[in-house]
Amino acid sequence: MKRRSMLVAGVALGADSVTGPTPAWAAAEPGLSAGDVAAARRLFATGAYTRLDEVLPLLLAAAHRVEQGPAGAARAAGGGGVLASQLAVKQGRTEAAGTYAQQAGATARRSGNPVVLAAAARAAATPLRRTGRTDEALHLLQEARTHLLASPRPTAAELEAAGLTALTAAYTAAQAHQPALADDFAAEAEENTLRLARHPHTPGRPRELTADQCALYRIGIHRHLGDVDTALAHARRLRPADLPTAERRARAATDTARALLDTSDTVGAFAQLRLVELTAPLEARRPSVRALTAQVAELRPGLPGLSDYTHRTVGTSHRLA
Description:
Oligomer: single chain
Low-confidence stretches: 1-21
Number of helices: 15
Largest sheet: none
């Protein structure tokens, strides 16, 4: 009963983002299906982090029970460890994110699925680079990319995963101040985007690897490399409405706000932070985004609307989970 009530509460609060059959983790003896994983990923994509945090323990328990055979291992890695690691990153819990990513990597290897292995590598890259282990992150990402492109004719799923892996590698290299490597990976992702466009598109499944996704990453890449003008040029070319999820649109606004603050455009940065809240309210309460808001408040405390915004997003009563 408790399992069912938790899921129903999550769906009732976000029925527009979580549709379809009731996921199996709500059952008395939950299993884990592709539909369960998709439902949980929709919570993440729409920024429904509180609801995801509530159902994640059930999802992880279900993943542990059904982790048998390649298909089960793939679901357990993608819908369990990877998702848990991504949520921990949003919550600012780097150590937990690393632990979940390690678990996802081990499970992904048992699946033998290069797309799942790449997802686990991308999840691991964030906590690794946040703890100064950039070389290890780049090694994992390059290894995942090699597996994805081993076939002379990679599938659409492999091409997309390779492009997303290259974008993560580009961002990682940029944070390590390796401009040539960052540019090579970003250019590879853009080439994969063009190749992917020649493949038939599966209806009802928005593609993650697009020109706008590449532009989004370019904002952060060039900002970390110290080229804020180029970062903002990519921000101007970006069409946020064409990004596949609310989480990605909020990330675009966040990265643009950071770049604008680097140029002392506090008013423009605050406008972007307002877009973050409009797009995905819980994104505005992430620790890193709250730090941006505090920076804006310190520089321009009298900006119209800033006091109310700060109260909503930075107030001590708020938390992300």
